[in-house]
Structure formats: structure tokens, C-alpha cells
Amino acid sequence: MKPSAATRIFRAVLLSVVVAGATVACVFVAAYVLFPLDGIEVSGAEMYPESEAESLVSGYSSLLTLNSRRVEEEVEANPWVEVARVRKEWDSSIVLVEVEERCPVFYAEIEGRRVVFSGDGAELPGLGGADLSVVEVDGDRVPEILNTVRTFEENGVRFASVDGIGPGGVEATVEGRSVIFSGGVEASQIRALPDVMEENPEAPVFDLRSPDRVVVGAGVGGDVEPEG
After folding, report:
1. For 170-216, what is each residue's pLDDT tens digit?
2. I want to staple 196 with a disulfide (CB 3.0 to 4.6 A). Which of 78, 98, 214, 215 is the partner?
3. Rg over CA atoms, the chain
4. Fold held by 5-101
5. What is the CATH class of 104-227?
């Protein structure tokens, strides 16, 4: 007695499923044998725990099956991490995770709540060992200050810390020198700042409150000398 058409179709489908499953299994076994994942190395991390990166790749048995972009996204989900790069080392069978961490630059007290911000405006879970003084600030001023800090960073000038806020402006440390600003700071001022600093090694403060100018002065409220 010949099998019915339905039985033949069922057998064909079942055979296809078995063959597909066996093929996938063979691929995974071959990937594990030929391209095993033997370990992970993390560089550039001080606050980001290496154990967290290890847990992210622990579910993978092979470099071939490792989803590098997904691992990068999961590492970058940690607030300390600004940028993560995952590289597969085929010769040594390890994964390299390069981390660029955020640096605290602004320790603010806003309506009784203390918050730590990084240079790109992200809120951090703590100081991370940074030696910052807490600065009391009106919450309405925070976005403006953070936007100015980002402008420094985007123009390649290292912003270290917000040191004080008063009627005269925001006092900060930039490239290891004292700077004061208020309101928006223009990119042209920031780009000119390193050269002005180099030309005036003894100047105690650099004033960015005047549009289109970097002013070398004796301090907030002191005598100033316009620069270029």
C-alpha cells in the first residue's frame, strides 16, 4: 500500500528539517573547532569592570559566532563607557575590547541633589576617583554649562573641571589653566585659546566672556588685557 500524499509531504518536510538541523549543528561545531573563543582582554578601562565584559562574551563559544556590534552596544550601555571597540584576534583566539571612558568634569549640587557630569554631558554614577569640588548651581543653568563644556571637547580642547559659579561667570580649569566664561562660548574662541595660553605662560586666568575675543586677565573682576 502506497503512502498517501499527505504522508509523503510530511516525510519530505521532516527530512528537510533534520537535514537543516544537522547542517546548522555541523557549522557550529566547525566554528568552535576552527575558530574557538579562548579569552578576552579589556584595555583603557579604569571604572568599567573587566568581569562585565567577560560576562557579555561568555555565551559565545566561537569568534565566528560572536556579534561584535552587539557586544560594543552592551559595553557602551555602561555609563562610564563613551566608546567601545571590539576586535577579534583570529591568530590568538581572543577578543579585544578597547574602551574610552568618560571623565567627570562637573560635580553639581542642584536643589540639594548632587550629580556628576562628564564632558559629553552624561550623568555618571560617581566621581570615579576624580578630585572635583562640589559646585552649587541653579538647575536652569546646567544645560547651558554642559553645552559649553561639549563645545570645548568638540574643538579638541581638554576641559578638566567646573570649579565655581558666581555672578561673574563660570570658573573652570581648561588645559590645566584657569578660564572664566558666561553664556555661550564661540568655537573660534576655544580654538584660539591654546595659542593664547602658550603665548602667556604666566597669566592666571583667560576670560572668554567677551564675544570673538580671548582676554588675558588677573582674575575675575581684575584688570584685563585683550588678546588678538
Report:
1. 999 999 999 999 877 999 999 999 999 999 999 999 999 988 899 99
2. 214
3. 28
4. Ubiquitin-like (UB roll) (3.10.20)
5. alpha beta
